[in-house]
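re: ur question from yesterday

yeah so i grabbed the chain u mentioned. its 302 aa long if i counted rite. heres the sequnce exactly as i have it in my notes:
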Amino acid sequence: MRLLIIGASGFLGAHVWRQAAAAGLKVITAGRTGPGPAGRCRHQRLDLSAADPARIAAMLTELAPDAVVNCAGATTGDPGELAALNVTGVYALVHGMLLAGRPGRLIHLGSAAEYGRTEPGVPVHEQTMPRPSGMYGVTKLAGTRLVQVAVAGGLEGVVLRVFNPVGPGAPATSLAGRLAAELRRPAGPGAEIRVGALDAVRDLIDVRDVAAAVLAAARVPALRHPVVNIGSGRGVPVRAMVKELLAISGCASPVREDAPDLPRPADIPWQQADITRAAEDLGWAPHRDLATSLADLWEAIH
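ran it thru and got these structure tokens back, copy pasting raw so excuse formatting
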């Protein structure tokens, strides 16, 4: 199988690349920066936010991938930056794929932020009406809608709505990544760990299980639905996650929930994925628990 990974230098994309390469797939990467972990494979410079769909079509015709995995996108930034990467870039990609005729299957990574507020205690399934509350969720939902329109127009594709990925390489934009990096820095006596509010419940999924879901979506004979949730299927109090990471690190510093730069969205207190469709459509299930994800995150930080 020939796999084109867009955004292979990012957190999710790097893990998709590693698993694809380990599985013996022929991997080609594309992105705004260099090839990152995929330095030994063919790489195409591609900025989706500024790309001409005709150029993308020509590239796909030349490369002839069996599947295109879009891991590119922005999680932070001003509205213009988020729209450029999460909406304009997705439009350019799906338009280019449609122009190319049969360019392979599209696997686009969406986000649980598209759902917005959900009912506490009720796992969210793919039929739940999305109501994103922030600009990130709004732009990710717009990207999903573009993929769905393209699928209706003849493109073979699926959106994997990824919940909250954790594990080795987690970026500082995530609570786990930021906290682990802080814990690795030497701290003086009496030093405190400052975080945002920790009273939310989130579905935390190991990034390597996400990568396995991507490969499952690439290999399954036929796609049954255009959107599939990818999560652990468990709701975990964020405070419990922080406590687990502190225990792994051996840090005894007190934690204060008053960091102004890490607010929790007040209108999303609880979120957990219903992953029934992922099992039925992709034959996929998560295999790593949160303790493993956090331990491996901790070990990966030097």
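noticed a couple things. The chain has a mean pLDDT of 92. also The chain has nine helices and 13 strands.
anyway ttyl
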